[in-house]
Amino acid sequence: MLKHYHILQVNPGATEVEIKKAYRKQALKYHPDHNPSAKAQAKFIQIKEAYQALLVSHKDDTRKLTAMEMADAIEKKMQDEKKERMKAYVRKMREKEEADLVNSIHYKILVKIQRGIAYVTVILAISMILIPVLSFIFEYGTPELNAYRISSFILIAVLGGGIMYGGIYLVKQKNR
Q: Number of folded domains in the chain?
C-alpha cells in the first residue's frame, strides 16, 4: 500500500482529493499520447493501478455508523414519517369537515339568505338611483330647482351606486 502512495508521490495520510490531483498530474506526465517512450507506458499503467488501489482503500475507509447512530437515524426517520402521516391525516380531516359543512342544510339556507339579501340590496340601489333621476326629470322646469336639490340628487345617486356595487359583489360570490 505504501508503494502506491510513493508511485503517486503523495503522503500516506493523503485525502481523496489530493490523490486525484496527484493522479491527474502523473497521468498527464506519463500518458502514452504525451510521452512516447516505452518506460512511460509502463509507468502510466503503474500510476493507474496505484490510483485505483488507493481509491478503493479510501472508499473502504469511509466511516461506518455505530449501532447507536443507526438507531438514532432510524428513529428520526420514523418520527419524520409519523409527522408526514399526521399532516396528511389532518389535511384529510379538514377537507372532510369542509365538505360536510358545504353539504349541510344550515349552510345551504344561509347561502340562500345571503343571496336574497344581495338581490334586495341591488334592487334598493337601483331604486335609489332611479327615483331621484325620475323626480329630477319630471320637476326640471319648476322654480324650486336649486343647488341643494342637485347636490342631494348627486349624493343619493352616488350612495345608490355604491350600494349597488356592494350588492353585485355579493351576488357574484358563488362560493360563499
A: 3
